[in-house]
Amino acid sequence: MKNFYIIDFDSTFTQVEALDELVRISLSDHPDREEIYKKIEDLTNAAMEGRLSFRESLTQRVQLLHANQEHLKQLVSRLKKKVSASFSRNREFFKQHADEVLIVSGGFKEFITPVVLPFDIKIENIYANTFTFDEEGNITGYDQENPLSQEGGKVKLLKQLQLEGNIYGIGDGYSDFQLKESGLIQKFYAFTENISRQSILEKADHITPSFDEFLYVNKLPQAISYPKNRILCLIVGDVPEEAIQVLKKDGFSIRHKETFEDKYVGDVGMVLLADGEKISDAKLLKAIKLKTIGYLGNSKNKISHDIATEMGIVIFDDQKQNPRNAKFIPKRMADFINKGDTYMSSNFPNLQLPKVGNAHRLIHIHKNIPGIMAQINNVYANHNINISGQFLMTNEQIGYAITDVSARYDKQVLKELKEIDQTIKFRILF
């Protein structure tokens, strides 16, 4: 059966609630703006959490706007810069599934349509409310006949559409859950990249901290091979909040602990340590999923660089204890996970990589002995895979090979690359 994907707009497709942003634009010079902003936010949250009917919340919010056509133009410009990161990087999915993706929102077409159209979403698949205006272009209200302006509006709309197939809903609020409650959709995915509402999480079929997660669990085309929210990033010790925020905003699953607890050793993918913290050799040897370590100080005598290198773990540290490295070190860690960059690593060959489009990036870390690259390229040749770019850097211990391939590959290719003798680590970036 055909699949359909019902996607919410506010705090899902975009990082923000559009009406909240609109009132900040329209009332920027109003003496009571902060009080009005708070009222709008409270009304939004009350509706999203199911504590206030959507119709009542919408009516009160629109009355507080005092906005016009010019304010809407400014809002659209702002929203285009506020598309959720995981949606923004997965444009290819929307292009491939243009017929199956529907934007269904209690927001307004006047600002939703120009934001989502560049993602190849069809204009006839955009369902939202519409404003009413006076002759001067001031917003006076909204079309109250539109089912999306009413309580249970998304349910009413979907009943009218009579879609035949498997329907999946993605959103952050109560109106999104109502689709599941009505029995009209197969699964409801609570989207938490921007906001997490506990009352909604408890009712979801699956919590998806990013759109990558939704695509991953449903085996759909995705920009990255593995959702970053599934990569456990352990913060150890007295690490500045600004350093933590770098990794949190990038979407990694953060745990902040006073010590490197044993229960995390087997599953941790990234570790950021405060100056003075240590990782014992025994723990390091057991950290089989660990990909990178950041150290906010000089890691010499704190972490065994030899063991880390032998395990394919990239270390970034701050030997000169520069204050700017509170952000610099976690950024280097994120760049390694996201792009494969090892620039300014303490133990790996330093490599900065270009961004690529329409390609898959594969990382192969191996012991530095002759013949490995020939074996890697033989695997690609045997499977008729075209190499669009390849990079190799070595030091005395290891070789670090990055290959960008322009064709899709089957699992056998990955299996053969992993099984090359002297392979230390292999992973797919995207």
Provide a short characterization of the protein structure.
GO terms for molecular function: L-phosphoserine phosphatase activity; magnesium ion binding. With 430 residues, the chain is an alpha/beta fold.
Main attributes?
18 helices; magnesium; 5-stranded parallel sheet; 17 strands; single chain; Alpha-Beta Plaits; alpha/beta; Rossmann fold; 6-stranded parallel sheet; 430 residues; globular; HAD_sf; 36% helix; 3 domains; L-phosphoserine phosphatase activity; HAD-like_sf
SSE layout:
Layout: E1 3-7, H1 9-13, H2 18-26, H3 33-48, H4 54-65, H5 69-80, H6 85-88, H7 91-96, E2 101-108, H8 109-116, E3 126-129, E4 131-133, E5 139-142, H9 153-161, E6 166-171, H10 174-182, E7 187-191, H11 198-201, E8 206-208, H12 211-217, E9 232-236, H13 241-249, E10 253-257, E11 270-273, H14 281-286, E12 292-295, H15 305-310, E13 314-317, H16 325-339, E14 360-367, H17 372-382, E15 387-394, E16 398-405, H18 411-418, E17 423-428
Helix pairs in contact: 2-3, 2-4, 2-5, 3-4, 5-8, 9-10, 13-16
CATH class of the largest domain: Alpha Beta
CATH topology of the largest domain: Rossmann fold
How far apart, in Å, are the first and last alpha carbons?
28 Å
Residue windows where pLDDT falls under 50 for at least 5 positions: none
Q: What is the total tally of β strands?
A: 17
Please give the domain count. Answer: 3
Mean pLDDT: 93
Write down the Rg: 25 Å
Output the number of helix runs. 18
- Biggest sheet statistics: 6 strands, parallel
User: In order across it, which strands form the biggest sheet?
Assistant: 3-2-1-6-7-8
Please state the structural category: alpha/beta
How much strand?
Answer: 15-25%
